[in-house]
Amino acid sequence: MPHRAVVFVGDGRKALFLLNEGTGSEPRLKVQRVLEDENPPTREQGADRPGRALSPIEPNRSAMEQTDWHDIEKRRFARTIAGALDRLVQESHAERVVIVAPPRTLADLRRSFSPAVEKRIVAEIAKDLTGLTVSDISQYLTA
After folding, report:
1. How far is it, in rounded angstroms, from Cα 26 to Cα 20?
2. The whole model's pTM is what?
3. Pairwise CA distance, residues 27 & 98, whole Å
4. What percent of the chain has pLDDT over 90?
């Protein structure tokens, strides 16, 4: 992890933007920004039951799938994170970016990164480290 690299650690609900002020062998991560998203489960967000569809061909009704509001919010939060990361990379003039996120969040982020961020990504780690302290994250990344 190079000096002045931006390290993003996040999932669908929390995002930590860190900057390595140390060296590659002895990183010193400093928190630049923290974002948290309140995203209750779908059952707490939806008001109605899923609808039913009538078919002009068959006499039976079929149930429609319930909208997953929780998943929709996770994807929206990923777009918000990508925008915030783009601004941080521009402000800090970082040449390297390290992304640490669970696989699903990582996939959502990849769809939302700007070309400026994409070309600076030097590592992607498919792991959820949001529950760790900054020093534990630093130790994990150097191990």
Report:
1. 9
2. 0.77
3. 13
4. 43
Q: Is 111 left (phi over 0), alpha (psi -120 to 50) or beta?
A: alpha
Within-domain flag for 54: no
Q: Residue 56: inside a domain, yes or no?
A: no
Domain contains 55? no
pLDDT digits (tens, 9 = 90+) for 47-77: 566 666 666 676 666 655 666 666 777 788 8
β-bridge partners, 7: 18, 98
**Between these two residues, 118 and 66, which has the higher pLDDT value?**
118
Give the residue numbers spanning the domain of 12: 6-46+64-142
CATH classification of the domain holding 132: 3.30.420.60
In a domain, 75, yes or no: yes
Q: How many domains does the chain have?
A: 1
- Over residues 8-27, the pLDDT tens digits come to 999 878 899 999 998 877 88
Distances (CA, A) of 1 to 48, 101, 139: 48, 16, 12
pLDDT at 121: 95
Residue 33: which of 91, 79, 112 has the closest Cα?
Answer: 91
At how many degrees (to 10) do helices 103-112 and 69-92 cross? 60
